[in-house]
Amino acid sequence: MKHPAVDLGRPPDWRAVERVLVVRADNLGDVVMTTPALRALRRAAPHARVDLLASPAGAQVAPLIPAVTEVLTVSASWQQAGTPRAVGDLAAEEARLVERVRAGNYDVMLVLTSHGQSPWPAAHVGMLAGIGLRAVHSTEFGGAVATHWVTPPPVGTHQVDRCLLLLAALGVPPAGHELELAIPKADGVPEGPFAVLAPGGSCPSKRYAPERFAVVARRLAESGLAVLVTGAPKEAPLVDEVVAGAAHPLVTPLGAVAVPELAAVIAAADVVVCNNSGCLHLADAARVPVVVTYAGTEGRTEMPPRTTLAAQVLGNVVPCAPCRQFHCPYHHECLDLDPEHVAAAALRMTGERMTREVALP
Questions:
Q1: In this structure, are strands 70-73 and 49-54 parallel, antiparallel, or unpaired?
Q2: Which Pfam families is this protein grouped with (predicted)?
């Protein structure tokens, strides 16, 4: 039974809305998956300023999102895990964030979350900052912190659809489900066919074993594909381990590049092989064939690629999924995949793409 206070908020007059703050304070891929909602919002309120509150990781992709005017980059306390911090430090940090948000003079705050994430800390910041309309998805009662408390969709709903459903509750019709990024043209990529391989991920439980990624890279290289191995700066040792393990001259590190440049390289690739990570969603938005080693941390229907014409999601069905864990407490059976099968899927997609391109008039 629903709480009597849920789903009572009336949609605003979007023609009168001047400034909107969209909150998506988690990972880069999550921000990419907000782009259909941001596009729909832009069409509903074409004269409004639309700003994005994002984490340092998520903010990196914001320059590629046409609907976003400005980015507030925030290491939000409610998105951080690990060593507890002093209460005084957290209070001072929240006070500074409230003032930053207050300075934006926003009419509307939209708090976009994944299943299991609480929207209430962000909505509380919006309330203290004086934002008149604060919309969230939640199964939990939050009092007056949100003005529009919307029943979330069922567990397993795709992240794109989850975002669009919150907007629909506010009177914003969808404007397509396709991811949208304004990706620049790549410079310095291999002249022949090449693959991008990304062995990283936001946490260890999402990562296919690097020694297996090395086998995948070697098999692709032996088939004639140059392989660029990429990762965030903190993943440089992981990239080096894959390159060294592949031991093939066609397998090289991409090197340190910003997200717009990474997106450009991905858009020029013939295939991308990656974990359930930001590179998955960059490839999906670029409509590049992608093979995903998809861990059981999230449901298989929550964030698979849907925009690209060619994708294969590989992962074993396990009873503990979706676990939402940073570290697998068992033996990572969900990613116990034969690297020969992963490489074969990537090569099959590369051949199919080349066949389609040759057939084009």
A1: parallel
A2: Glyco_transf_9
Whole-structure pTM value: 0.93
Segment holding 72, helix H or strand E: strand 70-73
Residue 261 near residue 334 (C-beta atoms within 8 A): no
- Ordered by where they begin, the domains of the chain are 19-168 (3.40.50.2000), 194-359 (3.40.50.2000)
Residues in the chain: 361
What's the rounded Cα separation, in Å, for the pair 196 and 215? 14
Task: Compute the distance between CA of residue 181 and CA of residue 329 in angstroms, rounded to an integer.
Answer: 36
Written as one letter, the residue type at 249 is P
Tens digit of pLDDT for each residue in 103-137?
999 999 999 999 889 999 999 999 999 999 999 99
Cα separation, 28 vs 208, whole angstroms: 19
Q: How many CB atoms lie within 10 A of CB 114?
A: 18
Q: Determine the Cα–Cα distance for residues 28 and 279; give it in Å rounded to an integer.
A: 9
Distances (CA, A) of 188 to 195, 196, 262: 14, 14, 12
How far apart, in whole angstroms, are the C-alpha atoms of residue 220 and residue 237? 21
CB 298 within 8 A of CB 162: no
Query: Sheet holding 133-137: strands in order across?
Result: 70-73, 49-54, 19-24, 108-111, 133-137, 148-150
Q: How far apart are CA 152 and CA 11, in angstroms?
A: 17
**Integer Cα distance of 181 and 196 in angstroms:** 18
Instruction: Determine contact, residues 24/52, Cβ cutoff 8 Å.
Output: yes
